[in-house]
Design a protein that fits this description.
heterotrimer, A alpha+beta (121), B alpha+beta (342), C alpha+beta (164), A: 121 residues, alpha+beta, three-stranded antiparallel beta sheet, two-stranded antiparallel sheet, 21% strand, B: 342 residues, five-stranded mixed beta sheet, elongated
Amino acid sequence: MACMNEDGQWIVLMGLLVALGLFFLALIINQSALVGQTTAEGVLEFPKNDIRDLREAVFNYVDASQNTEVQKDIIAISLERKNAVVSFSAGEQQDVSGRLLRPVTIHYNNGVTEYDETVYY
Amino acid sequence: MSLDFLVGFTIFMLALIMVVSMVPGLLAGLESSGIDYDAVAYRTGVILVEDPGWPVYPPWEMNDLAHKDEIQRIGLAVSKETPNILLSTKVERFFDNSFFDPEDYRSKVIFGDIPYSYNFSLLSEDGTSYNNRTGSPIPPGHGYIRRVVKIKEPGVAEIDGSFASQYTAPSSNQEFIVRLDFGQLLNPSVGAAYRIDPRTEPVNVTITGFDEYLNETAPAPTNATLRTVTFWKKDPTRPIPQFTKIPFSYSTTDSSLYTLTIDGNPYDLTPDAEVFDDISLVLKPAATSLFTLDQNSILDIRFNLGDPPPRPNIFGIHDYDYNMTTVPRPDLKAGVLEVAIW
Amino acid sequence: MVNDSGQLYTMEGVAAGIIMLLTVYIVISTTSIYTAGDTHIPDMQLEQLGSDVLAMMDTPDTNGDTSELVGFINGNESEHFNSTFLTYCNATTDGTLDDLHMSASVTYRDGNDIRERQFVAPDDSWTGRESAVRVTRWVQLPSANPYGGVGVRAVLVEVLLWRA
């Protein structure tokens, strides 16, 4: 670079164009490759099994006549071990098409996925 | 000179760093096909294990060959509330190679525009009751998922000699009734994984040790005649509920609707045949759906053994319900399901 | 006095060296991130399998029974838990056994503290460098349980699962 010769500027310019072209191609291919990588990540990131598990735990809590200790257990351990803010409660029994069911509200938020549900159980 | 050089050099460095950081991404693009297969295998596994398929009522597995096109999606789960619990009738139909061809598996389970190759296999924990496999041999480099499942099997009402004291009574008409109260069977308080649902599972009635039910008075007979098997229904929500005989082609043998065997030989529902040891009736869900029953109906299966003078003493009503003595239901069977896609 | 006419050559040399080192560093570091990204697939498979196994162990075989999992946790039967879990986990449809290993712990609440108790210790294949996945399951224990003593309690069973 030092003691540069001023000749051959066309070659340098063409080199620059080719380099720019490669740069944009690389940019595009790079973006497309990301899609395949995130399929498995997407599965891991979405806490489907966690939410299903929580629902069952909440139904068990309702079955255990809404023991407040169980509710405290689930809320505290969720926050500590699963980094998820969880809240749930069951209302009074109502007549839903001939059956006595409680409206159960479940809220789940682990910072990425938020889940809210009201289910009659 | 130095300012120009520094500016140019900085731009060059920045560009170089960006390009270099893209190099691994460029290579990853070439590798992505293997990742894709695993994702497809995962998706297929979820559809099979966590979904009951579509249509749900009547369930897809009840469609015969002529109505195969009505099956939108094949799923093996008992219901959408019970992931990983498979229904035995769905499993049997799914692995029936005479029913589904490779194109069906691609369009109803795997989905996707590419004609993927597949291999589905299921093995129960005991190694014998379920050992199914369909698809081509698995090459290296396939996408794969393995799921642990439990399989629900229908119960069998086995009425053996131990029930004889309940159901022997001298009577003018020797009629034995097996009664299915749908209101009780389909009560949602029993979870879907343990429910007796005649709309999706076969009803299995077996009378064994028949000599216990014979009239002991001299001259003691060695057999009796099964005249007819008829189906009756009652809808308790009607103003004057009463049992009415269900119109049905009783004299046609159709193994997709029912099977009736007497001492091991097949018969239609008007057998007029001699019974020495046992009667076995399997009523398939396809037949139950013809009876237009709802969740309040009561279905009677009436075995008529009438005979003057009465040879059997059998008489009574056997409730097909959740009592483990009257209808012992098998435990859920653990198993493992594998999906390979390439 | 040092001659300063070669400054640009020196700068060029230093810059070239830095560029080379930087390139090597970036390529190596980003490549290793790429391989880490690839492990998401085995992770996903293991996590799904582990969740399935815990869910199936928590499903009673007949209506109204308590599940195997509740029995194991409540009775402190870590041996049984370990063998049952691995039986489910390692089964394949061609009858061969996979090579998965596990350790487990139970997290429970003691007053305002969250405590963890080792339930199944890792076996010899555990070196600490495995890419293990963690799967969890809520278990509701009946009163008179080893965690918290009196009254119905909920505990979190955590299983670490890896391929040796």
